[in-house]
Design goal:
The protein is an alpha+beta fold. It has three domains: about 5-55, Uridine Diphospho-n-acetylenolpyruvylglucosamine Reductase, domain 2, CATH 3.30.43; about 55-170, Uridine Diphospho-n-acetylenolpyruvylglucosamine Reductase, domain 3; about 180-285, CO dehydrogenase flavoprotein, C-terminal domain (Enolase-like, domain 1), CATH 3.30.390. It is about 35% helix and about 25% strand. It has helices spanning about 15-25, 35-40, 75-80, 85-90, 90-95, 105-110, 110-115, 125-130, 225-235, 240-255, 265-285, and strands spanning about 5-10, 25-30, 50, 60-65, 70, 135-140, 140-145, 150-155, 155-160, 165-170, 180-185, 195-205, 210-215, 225. Strands 4-5-10-6-7 form a five-stranded antiparallel sheet. Strand 8 and strand 9 form a beta hairpin. The protein is globular. Bound molecules: flavin-adenine dinucleotide. Flavin-adenine dinucleotide binds near residues 31, 32 and 123.
């Protein structure tokens, strides 16, 4: 099936894109096209106009500035995958990138597009949640910064206004004694997650956990934080026992659905195991070694 006809606009600046968003009747934004183009082809999306961001060079960046890792709206999955900065300092991002879809999709798809798509099976939203990330949006009234915690409403629905676009995603740069990781279960290369867990921990000078963030993939109606598990970790020293308890609490807080790939109780068990493994990797990256769970 081919898409219904639509106008194709190619703005060269964010200001131009925002003006088009306001002026056009029911426009849709195109970034990497890896989710939108299939929806157009199957006529699940039938916009009158498409605003293609790909000529907006000012959105194409991945950098640390002013205490934040800043990911421009045209940064692609592959940019994260190949970045020395990410490999060196952002364990969860480095883990997640090669697990997203397949190389063809990673070459074109953007991190911001994935977050805007708000598919609860998407990987980046969990990473953003674990890191207390923010979504920077631009609309006719200027810029708005939305905490990731307040961004995801329902599957494919966010708090972004219709006339706003994402310009940047950002997370705080790592502190001393910080580690993060992402673990994902999928049936085969190229598949979305059956379950995934992104974690970030920060230790104090004595080696006690002072901050913990855990974001879960594909086990609720949106990507969600495992807040009970996070709270259980704060004040604890990283240990197999503390991570076991956090894994169990994360599983209890998840609400996966049974499907052809596994029943809900299996996915809950996987949340438990993936969270424990991610915590062990994060602790190691923060400077401690805690034995990994094997089952
Ligand atoms: C076969 C397949 C497997 C996949 N597997 C995975 C996976 O394992 N993990 C995973 O996380 N993802 C997966 N994806 C999704 C992939 O990561 C997409 O790249 C991503 O969901 C969308 O990014 P995009 O840049 O291609 O966005 P597009 O397809 O261009 O846009 C997606 C949506 O976001 C909106 N949008 C895009 N950019 C902006 C912006 N800057 N501001 C506001 N709205 C915007 C668009 O209007 C559209 O509604 C898969 C996709 C496919 C087709």
């Amino acid at each position: 099936m081919k898409s219904a006809p639509f106008e194709h606009h190619e703005p060269e600046t964010v200001a131009e894109a925002v003006s088009l968003l306001e002026a056009l009747d029911e426009p849709t934004i195109l970034a990497g096209g890896q989710s939108l183009v299939p929806m157009l082809r199957f006529r699940l999306a039938n916009p009158d106009a498409v605003i293609d961001l790909n000529r907006i060079d000012e959105l194409d960046y991945l950098e640390e500035a002013d205490g934040m890792l800043r990911i421009g709206a045209l940064a692609r999955h592959v940019d994260i995958e190949e970045s020395a900065l990410i490999a060196d300092r952002y364990g969860s991002f480095a883990d997640a990138a090669p697990l997203v879809a397949d190389p063809q999709i990673r070459n074109r798809g953007t991190i911001a597009g994935s977050v805007a798509q708000a598919d609860p099976k998407g990987d980046w939203a969990s990473v953003l949640l674990a890191h207390d990330g923010e979504v920077v949006a631009r609309g006719p009234d200027g810029e708005r910064v939305i905490p990731a915690d307040e961004f995801f409403l329902l599957p494919y629905d966010t708090t972004l206004d219709e006339n706003e676009m994402i310009t940047e995603l950002r997370v705080p740069t790592p502190l001393d004694r910080e580690g993060s990781a992402y673990h994902k279960l999928k049936r085969k290369t190229g598949d979305y997650a059956m379950a995934g867990s992104a974690v970030r921990i920060v230790l104090d000078e004595e080696g006690t956990i002072e901050t913990a963030g855990i974001g879960l993939t594909a086990v609720d109606i949106t990507n969600v934080r495992a807040t009970d598990a996070e709270e259980s970790l704060v004040g604890e020293r990283p240990s197999k026992e503390a991570f076991k308890q956090a894994g169990e609490l994360a599983a209890e807080q998840s609400h996966p659905e049974s499907d052809e790939h596994g029943d809900a109780s299996y996915k809950e068990r996987m949340v438990n195991v993936l969270t424990q493994r991610a915590l062990a990797d994060a602790a190691e990256r923060a400077g401690l070694v805690v034995k990994r769970v094997t089952a």
